[in-house]
Amino acid sequence: MDSFIEPSSRPGQQPDSISISNVNLSLGSGAARVHILKDISLRVAQGEAIGLIGPSGSGKSTLLMVMAGLERPDSGEVVVNGTAFNGLGEDALARFRGREVGIVFQSFHLIPTMTALENVAVPLELAGERDAAARAARELTSVGLGERLHHYPSQLSGGEQQRVALARALAPDPAILVADEPTGNLDEATGRQIVDLLFTKHAERGMTLVLVTHDTGLAERCDRVVRLRSGRIDTTQPGTARARSA
């Protein structure tokens, strides 16, 4: 059994935002069964930023999906902001995720027939937000797209589309933001702008941030770097953010 990988040890340490205990997840069956996550235990403090790194197939994206409630483990416990996922049905889990977890993917997942404003506002409307359009406009303005509200995805650059995706993730004011290779479809300069924006929003709002990346330098901007290998946590070390705050 793996011991817990503890949050960064800092003065005034916050309580856990995410607690994962002895999580296992596999795909397939019989001889074709592949074990993706193997007895993973990890704790993330409120407001902490962690970078998940590792080679392709190491399980880092799957671990992020488990944290976000998008994948159910075969065994083990996942607790996010005090709520145990094991006790939630699919509808309740979806509602919880919509309130508490913002998700940014490598692919932008924008609806091509909707404007930038609509892509951000419609999920808010579906969640019962009365001032969805105004809130979406504020969020898009905050990521530098105040002049692009009524443009369609095809009229936006890759970096602008990822900003829309980030605004959509931030609009419900989630406690946790998870990002899976958010710069993977962007050129280096644009990717750097998106990363800077991601960390700025994390700092401004005090959210917990979980970032999956192949880029060690990017991961090291977090408070803590967790390296996965073959479905297990291999190493954990402080990032440069923690070093600066020490």
Describe it.
With about 250 residues, the protein is an alpha/beta fold. The chain has a single domain (about 45-65, about 90-245), classed as 3-Layer(aba) Sandwich (Rossmann fold). About 35% of the residues lie in helices and about 25% in strands. It contains eight helices and ten strands. It has a six-stranded mixed β-sheet with strand order 6-7-8-3-9-10. Strands 2-1-4-5 form a four-stranded antiparallel β-sheet, covered by helices on one side. α3 runs parallel beside α5 (about 160-170). The longest helix is centred in the last third of the chain and has 18 residues, at about 190-205. It starts with 15 loop residues before the first strand and ends with a helix. The model has no long low-confidence stretch (mean pLDDT about 90).
Secondary structure blueprint with pairings:
Blueprint: E1 16-27, E2 34-45, E3 49-53, H1 60-67, E4 75-80, E5 83-84, H2 90-100, E6 101-104, H3 116-126, H4 132-142, H5 158-170, E7 176-180, H6 188-205, E8 208-212, H7 216-219, E9 224-229, E10 232-238, H8 240-245
Parallel strand pairs: 3-8, 3-9, 6-7, 7-8
Antiparallel strand pairs: 1-2, 1-4, 4-5, 9-10
Helix pairs in contact: 3-4, 3-5, 4-5, 5-6
